[in-house]
Amino acid sequence: MPKLTKCLSVAAIVLAAVTGAARAQQDFPTKPIQLMVAFPAGGSTDIAARIVASIAEKALGQPIVVINRGGAGGQIGWTELVRQRPDGYYIGFINLPATNTVILDPERRAVFTEKDFTPIINQVLDPGVIWVRADSPYKTVQDLIDAAKKSPGTIRAATTGILSDDHLAILMTEEAAPGAKFRLVHLEGGAAQFKEIMAGNIDVAFDNVGSIVKRVQSGEVRALAVMDDARSRFLPDVPTMKELGLPTVISSSTRGLAGPKGMPAPLVAKLSDVLKKAMEDPEHVKKLEEQGLAIKIMIGDEYEKYFAETHSKAKKYTEWAKNRPPM
Amino acid sequence: MDTLAHLMAGLTAALSLQNLAFALIGCILGTLIGVLPGLGPAAGTAILIPLTFKLDPTGALIMLSAIYYGAMYGGTVTSVLINVPGEAASVITCIDGHQMAKQGRGGTALGIAAIGSFVGGIVATIALVIVAPPLAQVALKFGPPEFFALMLVGLCLITGLGGRSLLAGLTMAILGLLIAMVGIDPVRGAPRFTLGIPSLYDGLGFIPVVMGLFGVAEILLAIQQPRRQVIKTDLASLLPSREEWRRSIGAIGRGTGIGFFLGLIPGVGAIIPTFVAYVFEKRLSKTPERFGHGAIEGVAAPESANNAYANAAMIPLLTLGIPSSPTIAVLMGAFIVNGLTPGPFLFQERPDLVWAVIASFFLGNILLLVLNLPFVGLWARILHLPYAYVCVCTLLFCVIGAYSLQQNAFDIGVMIVCGIIGYGMRKIDMPIAPLVLGLILGPFLEKSLRTSLEMSAGDFSIFFTRPLCLTLLVLAGIVLVASALRLQPRQLREGSTT
After folding, report:
1. How many structural domains compose chain A?
2. Which residues constitute the domain of residue A119?
3. Global ipTM
4. Which of B3, B106, B245, B392 is deepest in the core (most CB within 10 A)?
5. A79/B457 touch (CB, cutoff 8 Å), yes or no
């Protein structure tokens, strides 16, 4: 008899736990959700995150609290994200391929891998762009490549940081145009690039459309090419690298939401559903468009596949970057 | 007149009810810090940074700037009434200010100090408005090698002027640079000196470190100070007589000029301008024997110089990103915490914010005049508060503040350890200023050095082939050699104790 009682009580506990968990998922969310941004308050990821949060929380019926865990190029925040319980109450922004290169760079000693995340939904895909000063001698990408072939390692090309998507984009360009070599200068971001280009300390900058679109429109700088499949809506006159005969040069910076690994599928579905509606909201669309940021919603398998593809692509170029002399 | 348009826009922003309230709160808190002996402006600003976390950056910086110049203002009350400077820059005011109080003219001493500070602050801010935009324009042309050299000059000035011994100064500067290296390498992304502790991946937080080095350390020191008697003096008649006015006007003008120009040079510190202004007045006076016995010029000149300095010192910060004193370094830290790097960039990227902060200086100086003239009696009362309670409350505030930075208890530990270190360093007379400057400039110095070398593909000649860069490097060398040979004026050496 005692055996049976034990069995029954175990069964009862298991049953309670299972149904409890199921109910918890059904009722989700019953308390505020924390949304981690791995960059300081006021940055463009943060601003867009707060817009999404403010719209989505109305549909969700619980507040979404944006918390900033900036530092170490996102590594601090992502480390914190993967350590959370996968119960949906702590989710965060990941930035591909920056999240991937942090994982892939052995020097970083990241405590997480690509398997430690549950991708939920992608929000923005900001294509890469090559730009120069308005009075630069380089009128086209071809001018630039010719010059980089003629005197390799003398043309100073700025990234927005080591192993940023822009750094990888330079490597892709060198790969697509054999013989061309740039001198890499790792700057902190778009503002630093603009200053050094204008002061003549840098010859060409690799960045993303969102951070330079206003300056291209005002004529302060010239965009040579966009590194995407199709032209950017924000820069309709700028050709893609594909059009210029360099179809392998496709680079972008994306941001989307993810949770720690092991999040139950119903939770992911509920969150991606609510967040998708928030991202389609006219207010969200309008505010992102003002910043020149292209919304690209990817959920479920599509986003997981994109994550995996980005990871393997980043892996190739990260290894290459680590072995390439800086010139 | 682009500047004027910007200034007007800034003034509109600063005059919004919210920002005006922040400026007022900042002025009150700053004056309070100034009044409390033992707690200097650097400590006060550092301790109060966490208060501004939830504010928008403009409001936060308006409030912190107000705390800064409010503290520079408030020290006078303590100097005059108990002959102990409320903050180091009011040391010289003790001499004649306290004598005036003993003669029953304490009110007048505080009155002229408030008026002199007001004039100094306003004139320096006007000069800032005129000088800063073109200077920022020039600085925008600087490349990484020039910025590297410029920061080196700033660091050398502070090291050279910062203490009795160049060796001590250099040791502390290098220690600051080393502490700044803790965390993830800004270029390669590799962790350095992190000992595997995740909290150290993002480096030792500047704010908890300075809260410890200044806040906690100064409280520990203040506990050991003997209590002094508050002097009873007439605080009813604040306005000087016609004769006193006549003596003061010139002194205020000269003090303002001296304070302003010395404020432009990094490393001079807050005390030296007051010394120079005082000595200058005494030399110029037909009756130098009155100095030390309650001469009103001896209060007017240094107090004007003090506040002109405080506002002028914002120029190198806002235009070049070079902090010229530890307090300004703390203020720079506050900018950075708010996601803004002071420098020529900021003028271009966030003119709305920069000009709102500058415009708030005008309002702040007016607020301080109002706070100091009619309410001076109230501040005097604060001196009667039992110091034990003040110390405990301040310490408690530090602990809460350090924790609130990132809700990380690790920061409390950093602050307490730095507090003990800061206390020890003051006891063995090691200068703190070079350490703090090294700490805040370290990441920028490293970044510009490495970017320069990336630009030149590793060739160091980039620093010697660019004329401006070379000039700055030579200047840095001269500063170091001169301070090694002790060529600087005697007053500078004596004055620069903080």
Report:
1. 2
2. 32-126+252-319
3. 0.76
4. B106
5. no
